[in-house]
Inverse folding.
């Protein structure tokens, strides 16, 4: 994930975008805040930068030509000509407003930052942050003059109030930059923010494919919930396969790790579902990312549910042996049972 330890917000502007469907218009700031002290920088970073704690990168796209992507163009001009920051921020505002065509989209403040000193995958680079703040917290405050006190309230922003936000890094511009987004969007807002306003798609590199494949394996293991042995065997086989291969062939993986043909079909169906939901297609063979492939064992759910009222926690599924437990069905009682042997 990105490292903001050395990051500094050097420019900031706040506009307002109403709802175009309701003809609410926009409000444009005439100034840029450039003298931002260290304490304010820390406060801004804690609210706007800390929520970006994943490394799921996107890139700008366009169905005709990448140069026609508006936000990519505005950001490129900001990176190239810092003195144009205010003018380009106004273009971002107008583009955002032009896409606010659904009556349910809320109005809100549009915060735009220029950030120096970001570290992304080992590269030292600058970034641009774009946030639309539609919700604010209510804060109580009190004043005391030595004899009497008064209370009041104000509205402000915390990191939990943000759902529409992105960071654009000045990297890989020819292929659409590296872009991070907040992942708190519902489906309607996701279309509005990701597709219509930003025009981005996930970067499908070895990290993406490996992480996506681990996600499919994790979902498949959940389907084996009723069978501790099946779950254990698949985890062992998968861990062994991923540890011994630098590349992954999906068909070979399924033949190696899954015994029953009908379960291979089920696994392939889950692959198809992932591809459809993420609008991607796994290559037949792809390079495994070293970091991502080691996360399978961490993501596996270690708690096995037995009916509605009993659960068994298995610390390490890979160490589980077939002789450690017996599962069956008691015809007389009409209930399932499990016998567990342990030292």
């Amino acid at each position: 994930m990105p490292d903001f330890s050395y990051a500094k917000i050097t420019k900031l502007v706040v506009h307002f975008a109403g709802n175009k469907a309701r003809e609410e218009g926009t409000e444009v700031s005439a100034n840029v805040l450039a003298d931002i002290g260290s304490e304010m920088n820390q406060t801004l970073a804690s609210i706007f930068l800390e929520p970006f704690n994943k490394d799921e990168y996107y890139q700008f796209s366009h169905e005709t030509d990448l140069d026609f992507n508006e936000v990519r163009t505005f950001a490129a001009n900001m990176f190239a000509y810092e003195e144009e920051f205010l003018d380009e921020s106004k273009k971002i505002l107008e583009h955002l407003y032009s896409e606010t065509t659904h009556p349910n989209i809320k109005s809100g403040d549009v915060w735009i930052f220029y950030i120096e000193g970001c570290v992304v995958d080992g590269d030292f680079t600058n970034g641009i942050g774009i946030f639309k703040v539609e919700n604010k917290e209510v804060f109580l405050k009190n004043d005391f003059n030595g004899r009497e006190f008064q209370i009041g309230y104000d509205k402000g922003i915390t990191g939990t109030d943000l759902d529409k936000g992105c960071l654009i890094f000045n990297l890989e511009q020819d292929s659409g930059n590296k872009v991070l987004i907040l992942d708190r969007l519902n489906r309607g807002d996701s279309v509005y923010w990701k597709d219509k306003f930003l025009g981005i798609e996930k970067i499908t590199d070895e990290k993406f494919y490996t992480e996506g494949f681990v996600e499919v394996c994790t979902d498949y293991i959940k389907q084996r919930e009723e069978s501790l042995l099946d779950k254990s065997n698949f985890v062992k086989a998968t861990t062994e396969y991923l540890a011994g291969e630098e590349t992954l062939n999906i068909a070979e993986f399924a033949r190696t790790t899954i015994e029953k043909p009908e379960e291979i079909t089920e696994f392939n169906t889950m692959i198809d579902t992932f591809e459809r939901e993420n609008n991607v297609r796994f290559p037949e063979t792809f390079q495994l990312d070293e970091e991502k492939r080691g996360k399978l064992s961490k993501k596996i759910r270690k708690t096995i549910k037995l009916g509605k009222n009993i659960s068994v926690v298995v610390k390490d599924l890979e160490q589980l042996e077939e002789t450690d437990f017996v599962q069956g069905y008691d015809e007389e009682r009409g209930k399932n049972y499990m016998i567990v042997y342990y030292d």
